[in-house]
Amino acid sequence: MIIIPAIDLMGGECVRLVKGEKENKITYGKSPLEVAMQYMAMGAKIIHVVDLDGAFTGEMKNISIIRELAAKFPIQVGGGIRSEEKVAELLGLGVKKVIVSTLLMKDLELAAKLKQKYCGKLVGSFDFKDGKLSYAGWTQKSELPFEEVAAGLEEIVVTDTSRDGTYLGPNLELLEDLKGRCNARIVSAGGVRNAQDLVALSEIGIYGAIAGRAFLENRVELGGMGFEIGGE
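Now predict its structure.
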């Protein structure tokens, strides 16, 4: 199983949100560039970057930082990507994978086109709030079946927002259920506390895990656990 370190951007700063709530924010004193350098020194092969301002507003606000990161590091990017033009722009900047959520649920015709055109470079993000599939920065709930939205994607990121940034552990029951309902590789995001959580994810066949706060606060020790930091 692979471990992907994360950088969440808000107002140009490196932050973490607790339970996905923008008013419940932890700000870290290090610049996004500095954090990315630390991740690469740990052996990361790809870094998960989210423009949280973009996720909430629908328009990416930290594109200058993302441009700088993409020029120096292998990154995958999500948050506020609502059009094919933005997908193409990010890939043109050197972003390795583009992560979309709202687009998948609001424009099924465009989503089907992008899944085919950018196969392998397009990752679906599925956020669950109170057990319901949500989007637009976790503020709106979708009634679409998970299976329909996930169809055609090679890789998806699954977040239980009630556990994001909380150290409560990943929602293994949710992940195991979704794994049986799609063919995509599943990357778990949110709640990772320690290497034991990573072992539990690996045991149920999860492809990877995204960890942000656990790395930023030096709570995860991977030595001797047999995990690979990074990605493809």
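Residues 106 and 151 are 15 Å apart (CA to CA).
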